[in-house]
Structure formats: C-alpha cells, structure tokens
Write a structure and sequence with these properties.
Blueprint (H helix, E strand, L loop, with lengths): L1 E3 L4 E3 L13 H10 L4 E2 L5 E2 L5 E5 L12 E5 L11 E4 L4 E4 L1 E3 L2 E3 L8 H4 L37 E3 L16 E6 L6 E5 L7 E3 L5 E7 L3 E6 L4 E6 L4 E7 L7 E4 L4 E6 L4 E6 L4 E7 L4 E6 L5 E6 L4 E6 L5 E7 L3 E7 L2 E6 L4 E6 L5 E6 L4 E7 L2 E6 L4 E6 L4 E7 L6 E6 L5 E6 L4 E6 L4 E7 L6 E6 L6
C-alpha cells in the first residue's frame, strides 16, 4: 500500500534561470523603518503599502558601512518617509521612484544623473510597470531587460458595455472576480457590485486552471500548452512564465506554507513551486495520471485519482512524500480528508464512501444528492454539491450522517464551490448559466443568489486590487 518516493522526489533547478535578485536585507530594513509591511516582490520591485513603487538599482560596487543610512536624495534634504523621487544609500544602492505624470509612468530625469545611478543595474528579472518610459541618459541601467514600454498596454481589454449594478453580500464587498467561462480564452474581470465584466485579460490559450495568491497574482495553466503564466494583478501583465516538460494542469495553493502544487498528468508528476521565490523546487514522480487533485485542510496530505485506473492515492507531505494507495472508487469527482477519514464522492453512483486513512477500512457508504460534483469541509460539516437538482447537502463528519439539504433554486447546473476568504461563506457557481449563490456555512443557509453576465468554469476571488502608482 505504501511507497516512498525515493529517486522519485527530485530536487531540481527547473526554472528557466536562477532566482531573481533579492533586495538586501539591510535595504529592506531601511525602507521598513518608515514603511512597515512594504512588499519586496520576488523580482526585486519595492512596493510601499500605498502601492507607490520603487525600482532598486544594484550598485556595481557596494560600500558597506557599519550601519546603512541615507547618503543623498532628490529633492534634496528629503527623507525616505517623504517618498522622494530618488534615494541614494551609503552602500551605493539607489531607489528610483516610479512617477505618474498625467497618466504616463517614468522616473526622475536629471541632466547630470549621479554616478551611483548611472553605474548601477536594474534586476534583470524585474517586471516594469506597463507604459514606463526611461529617460535616454538612464538607458544604461536597463541591461538586458526587454522594455518595449512605450507600446506596452498590458493584458487589459476594456469592455464598452455599461456597468450593471448589483448588491453583493457584505463578505463580497470590494471583491473582484477573475473568471474563465470556457466560452473564450480570456479572463473576464467582474467587480462584485456588478454582473457585467468591467474588462478582460487577454490570453493566448484556453485556460485549464486559474488560482489567485495573496490578492496579488493569478496563476494560470492552459490546455495543450507547456507553460504556467503568473499574472501580476497590480500591473495586469505576465510577470513570469514557468516552463514545464509537458502540460501543467491543476494548481493548488497552500497559503500558510507559501507553496503551490501543480500537476502534470502526462508525465505522472506533481511539481512543488515556491511562492516566495516564484521558482519550481521539486518534481514528485507519482503513480498514474493525476486528476481530482486535493490538499487536506491541515496541509499534510495531497490526494489524487489516477484517471486511467480510478485508483486513489495520497502523498504524505510531512512524511518524506510517502505515497499511499487508498483503493479504487468509480468516477470520483472530489476527495476530502478530515479527522483521519477520507470522503470520496462518485458522480455517477451518487454515493459517498468514507474510508479510515490508517486501516483503509470502509467505515460507511451513503447515498447522496444526484451528480455530486464538489465538496467543501468546514468545521465538522462537509458540504456536498449536487449538480442535477442544484442542491447542497450537509454531512456531519462526527456522526457521518446527512443533517441538512440546502436548495439553490436556480434551475442551472451548479458545478463548483469556492470559499470566500476570511469568512464562513462559500460561493456556488454554475458552468452553464450566469448565477452564483452564497451559503453561510455556520447558519447552513443560502443567503443570496446573484446574477452574472457569463457562466463560470473557473473563478478566483480577490480583494479589489489597486494598480501601481
């Protein structure tokens, strides 16, 4: 039943290049004195809490003093707290503020820029804001960066249709929906107080999976495409393109561990991706072709189904990636794990199997709603979505009995459950019609059903993102 992924767990340098240049800790400490919680992005960009952006210029030669301090600034005699246009530190590190003048982004333009600036270099993996224009006398700091910035409009395609207002539940106030409808390639962007896309983000391939991280990035995989794109929501540009040996498919993000897990069924692999450095760290060679990929709530186990055999496997993340065969179950549509028990639903059999993880003994098998397609565990309750009758059944995981039935009353074909972060609410979306329902998992009630102008195949929900100033 068990198998250790020895020679199968490969620590590899899978990224196209080395890790991006990181801003030195001493410089981070200097900025954080005045602006705590500054975002020192993996590509080197420095973004203050109000989204003011500084570009770090790495010196050709550092002059490290005992204590890092301000050498000069422009305007002169300004402090970091005043957010000057340029900061030169006494280790020759330079910070250039991105300026927005009449809607055009640039940096300070001095007739005689200081040598600390002209002799330095931008990080070569940095994502420059769209439309940024460099003064001619600073082109030397660009290095090998490709900056066709005067024509760069990012991914946004504006929608000419007028906003159609709607009132969301309180937990969705000031949220943004990023939706792949399956009807076209692009990501539709809808604000939570509207049903019509405000704009879309242009894509070149049909989207397979879409996940958001930290209200800052979208991770996107595509059918018949060997890349995963990372889109910066503040820039609305592809900040990084990650190459794979074969098509990446499902994405799971573990926010607590700052890790993403990415499947590639055709080469029987799960990839471990660092969200701190935005690089691939491991390739786990597994049994079969992975689908129905699931991370346990406690973050200790991954589960998947081999699409060729219907065998269910667990990967013990806290046990040297131990691989465990759970057994076979027909037409699995979702797996959940809680309190030592595995919950497995079959879309065609309309049943849920409950398996003891340690003994692999079948504890129970119950009839559930027709065409169960998704599950979500919250506390002691498991919410099971039935697509046929648009119903959510609630299973108490202490007693393993169905306690509630929540009718969506949408006459649609509900397909996915999406939790609303930092709340007890979940969204139920539909792949065939533009509707979503919000359920309070504590009250076990359908709170509201709201319209959308498009159906939802995949959705990511984030806080409303401010663009870089």
């Amino acid at each position: 039943m068990r198998k250790i992924l020895a020679s199968i767990c490969l620590s590899i340098l899978l990224a196209a290049g080395a890790d991006a240049m990181q801003v030195p800790q001493s410089v981070q400490d200097f900025v954080n004195k005045d602006f705590p919680e500054t975002n020192f992005r993996f590509d080197g960009a420095i973004i203050l809490p109000d989204n003011t952006m500084y570009l770090p210029i790495f010196p050709a030669k550092t002059d490290e003093d005992a204590e890092l301090g301000l050498k000069s600034s422009y305007p002169v005699n300004t402090t970091m707290k005043q957010k000057p246009d340029m900061v030169i530190l006494n280790n020759n590190f330079v910070l250039l503020k991105v300026l927005n003048t009449n809607g055009k982004k640039t940096v300070i333009n001095l007739s005689e820029p200081p040598v600390e600036l002209t002799s330095g270099l931008l990080p070569q993996d940095i994502l420059l804001p769209k439309g940024l224009v460099f003064p001619e006398n600073l082109k030397g700091i660009i290095g090998n960066l490709d900056i066709t910035v005067t024509q760069d409009t990012g991914l946004r395609i504006n929608n000419s249709r007028k906003k159609a207002s709607t009132k969301p539940v309180e937990q969705l106030n000031n949220k943004t929906f990023y939706i792949s409808s399956g009807a076209n390639k692009n990501i539709q962007v809808i604000q939570s107080d509207s049903k019509i896309p405000e704009y879309s983000l242009e894509q070149n391939h049909v989207i397979n999976d879409l996940k958001a991280y930290n209200n800052e990035f979208l991770f996107v995989t595509y059918f018949d495409c060997k890349i995963m794109n990372i889109i910066s929501l503040m820039d609305e540009k592809v900040i990084k393109q990650v190459n794979f040996e074969t098509n990446p498919e499902q994405i799971i993000i573990d926010n607590d561990k700052k890790i993403a897990y990415i499947t590639a069924g055709s080469n029987s692999s799960v990839y471990v991706f660092s969200l701190e450095t935005m690089t691939l760290k491991k390739q786990l060679k597994i049994n079969g072709q992975c689908e129905k990929f699931t991370l346990s709530q406690d973050g200790t186990k991954l589960f998947y189904v081999d699409r060729n055999t219907n065998n269910i496997w667990a990967i013990e993340l806290d046990n040297n990636f131990l691989l465990k065969n759970i057994g076979s179950f027909p037409n699995v549509s979702k797996i959940a794990y809680e309190n030592g028990k595995i919950y497995i639903i079959s879309r065609t059999k309309n049943r849920i199997a409950i398996v003891d993880y340690e003994t692999l003994g079948l504890k129970a098998e119950l009839d559930v709603c027709e065409k169960p397609v998704d599950m979500y565990a919250h506390g002691n309750d498991l919410f099971i979505l039935g697509a046929q009758d648009n119903i959510v059944e609630v299973l108490n995981m202490e007693e393993d009995v169905i306690t509630d039935k929540l009718y969506l009353n949408t006459n649609a074909f509900a397909t996915n459950i999406t939790p609303i972060a930092n709340s007890d609410m979940i969204m139920v979306t539909n792949a065939l019609s533009g509707l979503y329902s919000v359920i309070d998992t504590d009250l076990k009630e359908v709170i509201k059903t709201s319209p959308l102008d498009i159906p939802v195949r995949t959705i990511a929900v984030t806080d409303r993102v401010k663009t870089i100033k």
